Amino acid sequence: MLKNAPMSPPLPSIDSFAAAKLAEIRARGLYRTIRPTVRHADGTVTREGRRLISFSCNDYLNLAHHPEVKARARAAIDTYGAGAGASRLITGNHPLLDALESRLAALKGAEAAAVFGSGYLANLGIIPCFAGPGDLILMDEYCHACLFAGARISGAEVMTFRHNDMDHLAALLAEHRQSFRHALILTDGVFSMDGDLAPLDEMAPLARRFDAWLMTDDAHGVGVLGRDGRGSSFMGPDKADVPLQMGTLSKAMGSYGGYLCASRTVIEYVKNRARSLIFTTGLPPASVAASIAALDVIANDPALRGEPLRKARLFADALGLPQPQSPIVPVIVGAPDAALQAAAALEERGFLVVAIRPPTVPEGTARLRVTFTAAHQDQDVLRLAEAVRALGLPRPAP
Ligand SMILES: *Cc1c(COP(=O)(O)O)cnc(C)c1O
Fold it and tell me: Residue 397: what pLDDT?
């Protein structure tokens, strides 16, 4: 017992610190709440007792509730248990993980794959394997937050190029490449907040020319875009020349986990080096089994794979928005408060559409991020477009 403890202690400094930070976040219109929500098989959700049609989920093919996916996840629990027990390097390589890695490598046209705990963990682990102090990372300014996180912890010099601006990337490479030992270029294959694609057909040759290694984050591409749902490297007749294809199992696959597909040697090195693979517990068997089942569904159902993009186009056409390249359609609102109000108004009308604010997107571009899934009914897509129009959106470009 402390002898001189004060009778009524002041607010602990950590609480006053947190309270002041929260006040600052609120004042900037950036306060976030996480609301209790249940997702259903038909693409609707229950929130505060109300049923809403969700247009804010990345489960593009609704596989999280697919009967076959759920059955195989259940069977994996019965056979292998609920958890992995330890890191893969300690308790060993689960047979389901080997199977999943082979399937992912085949899907991505790569020799091998490494599965991680999540997409975020994958990027935290992979990037420092290929860039460190004395190396250069060039990344698109709109890259996902976890690519920035991985780049920062790598200790490499980090430069951003203007979104999808290949002239800017080429200029940075011409000016800086020679001053660094290795160079790594990072981009989303499909940009998560804008839904547009990286120009890999230009970027890959540029990377080769400057002896830089190209890594794509295909979180939003796999399963829904490209030949046979193989993602953003497969938009053209030939596979794009991308030596490091990263992605997540948490979106179109409907499950959880992240991965890298690359050459056999690169994967062997990553499994020896990536700290977020070595020092963390392996994925639960159910998640792995669900991902394998999801890959089967994706392989066997071409019509299903095309549905999310078809619905995105239906929505964009109805509002006169540019032709979407992916199932993600941004409706730019501008100010954070206005985006929140628009989302609340849509919720009143039975639609769940998430408002995305800075720092997730650049200042002044707070938006509704509308995502489409295979389960959406065309008439609901059109009703949503009507409701968006009734809010005076999309605003004419400034
Ligand atoms: C969602 C997302 C991630 C993170 O993947 P998780 O599996 O959810 O951790 C990484 N990159 C991009 C582009 C994403 O959209």
Answer: 59
